[in-house]
Design a protein that fits this description.
Elements (H helix, E strand, L loop, with lengths): L2 H25 L4 H8 L1 H9 L4 H15 L9 H18 L3 H18 L8 H11 L4 H17 L4 H19 L3 H6 L11 H8 L3 H4 L6
Protein name: Secreted protein
Organism: Streptomyces pimonensis
Length: 220
């Protein structure tokens, strides 16, 4: 076999290996261990939803990764970020006197913020939730809870004040994940808070949660 042919075969094999690796990364984790590591608590919820059938749960999660794994998250402008922070602060303050209205607004606000970051929009809640679970698996349950409580209240007045409070507190973690700059944004666009200062909206947002502990929310 000639030297030229050997080199050509080596190049072909190398290209095939690189292509396989890239395709595997694009598809995301497909085995149970990889999916469990990626989805964390969302993996356990999927298994429970499928009555303990791990194979069915893993198929569902793998399909989510295939559909949404390559989603490109859009950056927020500093003015947009402050506007969302101010609205979330207003939601928390409103909860004290009008918890049901605050929950409904929190549900809308997270949906709007997720859409602004590039997640599915136009009222496609289930699709948006699935995409968020791929990229924010450890915090998406808060959004699910707020949406469920908001929908129940819209129909029959369902949840009590404590359940609404817990849902809002849990949803705040996802809100903060969505509103904060990503790592590459932080390296290129340093806001006042990131540079050492603190925006008024962000400062209010950090102190407002204590309202949940200092005041008893009124039933409406």
């Amino acid at each position: 076999m000639s030297t030229g042919l050997i080199i050509a075969l080596i190049v072909i094999v190398a290209v095939a290996v690189v292509a396989a690796v890239l395709m595997s990364r694009a598809r995301g984790p497909r085995n149970g261990t990889g999916l469990k590591r990626r989805f964390g608590p969302e993996y356990d919820r999927a298994v429970a939803r499928h009555d303990g059938d791990t194979k069915a749960a893993e198929r569902e999660l793998a399909e989510r990764v295939q559909r949404h794994g390559d989603l490109r998250v859009r950056s927020l402008e500093p003015v947009e970020r402050e506007r969302y922070e101010a609205r979330w602060t207003a939601v928390q303050e409103r909860f004290v006197d009008a918890p049901r209205d605050a929950i409904a607004e929190a549900d809308r606000l997270i949906a709007e913020l997720a859409a602004a970051r590039g997640f599915p929009a136009d009222g496609r809640y289930e699709d948006q939730l699935a995409a968020l679970s791929v990229h924010h698996a450890h915090h998406v349950e808060g959004y699910r809870r707020v949406h469920r409580v908001a929908q129940a209240d819209a129909h029959d007045g369902g949840a009590g004040t404590e359940e609404m409070r817990e849902a809002l507190v849990e949803a705040r973690a996802l809100f903060e994940e969505l509103v904060r700059p990503s790592r590459h944004e932080a390296g290129h666009h340093r806001t006042g808070a990131e540079a050492g200062g603190t925006s008024p909206a962000a400062d209010r947002g950090r102190h407002t949660p204590s309202l949940f502990h200092r005041h008893q929310a009124k039933e409406s």
